[in-house]
Design goal:
5-stranded antiparallel sheet; 4-stranded antiparallel sheet; alpha+beta; 15 strands; 312 residues
Length: 312
Amino acid sequence: MAHPSQLVRIDGKTIRSLREAKGLTQLYLASFVGVTTDTVSRWENGKTQTIKKENLERLAEALEVAPEELLPREEEEENTSPTQEEHGNWGNGKATSPPQAASIAGPTRRWGLVAAAVLGAMALVALLLWNRPPGPRPSVQRWLPDHAPPGASFPVMLELSGTQGGQAVNVMITEHLPPGVKFVASTPSPVKASEEMREIKWIAPLSSSGVKVVYAIEMETGAAGQINGDLLLRIGGEKRILTGPSLLPAAAPYHWADQDRDGAIDDGELLTALDILGDSAPLARLRQQVERIWSAGRYRWNPAQHDYEVKP
């Protein structure tokens, strides 16, 4: 159990409002923070009004706000004059002011509460800043083409930004593929994959220059769903950054590099495709296919052969 000094109060209504405004689910927040969906639900409905400081930081990251925005706002106390009934009848039956000691106690107490609230907020902010990892959190972007024919290989690219000051760290990248999607190849090669090849893992050094992972997959006819993943790194403590979800490309009889779907790959589309694929051996087949279609000028998709036919 966390020590009371390690807990802070939160505003459940604010958490729920921010989550719904950003289109996030309770499951997403639970996965990001490392708690159960029931815990997130209890935060939002006010059944649990305190949270560990480290969980507050993760929750703020997931909602893309400062941690202080998730804390309850201090309610302004009403500053009303005391009535005759509240203080009794002093003297000759007319409403008069209470003794001097009572008139001083009200302002003194209010100023004490304000000072305590200010000092508490300053201490919390200082603690959060002290525990925050140095430098910005690495960002992750996943790219997929807009379309691809079922049975044809196409690339998925993950680009990770670097860390501040060129500090090199090893990161573990995990991708979760939906049913009906087949893993083909990647650069760099994965270090681990599940038996069904639905969960793929890579380990790569992440520095200020970042890192890029490109892998090829195929969709079965009727495949649908999303690609999800996460990035695990250790900078100022273990951090897991969720990447996704990303919808699968639309099923269409056009090459993934043919962005305008005009039945040809032009010069600009060729260069974009080559920038994505690079010059690694595992993706050589995709690269050669793009170059062959570009050189021929025209192509069409043959669903029976699960291949592209070029036309001069």
